[in-house]
Automatic annotation (TrEMBL):
<dbReference type="InterPro" id="IPR021202">
    <property type="entry name" value="Rv3654c-like"/>
</dbReference>
<keyword id="KW-1133">Transmembrane helix</keyword>
<feature type="domain" description="Putative Flp pilus-assembly TadG-like N-terminal">
    <location>
        <begin position="8"/>
        <end position="54"/>
    </location>
</feature>
<keyword id="KW-0472">Membrane</keyword>
<dbReference type="Pfam" id="PF13400">
    <property type="entry name" value="Tad"/>
</dbReference>
<keyword id="KW-0812">Transmembrane</keyword>
<protein>
    <submittedName>
        <fullName>Secretion/DNA translocation related TadE-like protein</fullName>
    </submittedName>
</protein>
<dbReference type="InterPro" id="IPR028087">
    <property type="entry name" value="Tad_N"/>
</dbReference>
<feature type="transmembrane region" description="Helical">
    <location>
        <begin position="12"/>
        <end position="32"/>
    </location>
</feature>
């Protein structure tokens, strides 16, 4: 037999558990969106760095950082920084807008291998 003061406590407990499950689901969805955005930013940075390095080495015509910016834009990202290095490589940083309150960032370097790397050696 229930005491009169305990009536409705199961309803409150069920509501609390439902709220906790809802918050957990929101967290998991946000985590998934952050992972997708980070992957998209990394891919855009890789491709933008390759475009900049190819242009810098003369394999394509144009300005290397402009090529990186156009490539990043085609992949849904914005070019944040573009650095042309003395070893004929390019380093780029991009950002991708997300549904979350922050941006996802990606950074990549592309260019020829270092001079001390010989073919066939790890």
């Amino acid at each position: 037999m229930l005491i009169k003061d305990e009536r409705g406590s199961g309803t409150v407990l069920s509501a609390g558990l439902a709220l906790a499950m809802l918050l957990l689901m929101v967290f998991v969805v946000a985590l998934g969106q952050a992972a997708v955005a980070a992957s998209k930013a990394a891919t855009a940075a890789d491709l933008a760095a390759l475009a900049a390095a190819d242009t810098y080495r003369g394999l394509m015509a144009g300005d290397p950082c402009q090529a990186a910016g156009e490539t990043a834009q085609q992949h849904g990202a914005a070019l944040v920084a573009c650095t042309l290095n003395a070893d004929m490589s390019a380093t780029v940083e991009v950002s991708v807008a997300t549904t979350l309150p922050w941006l996802a960032h990606g950074r990549a370097r592309a260019g020829p291998p270092p001079a001390d790397v010989l073919p066939g050696q790890p």
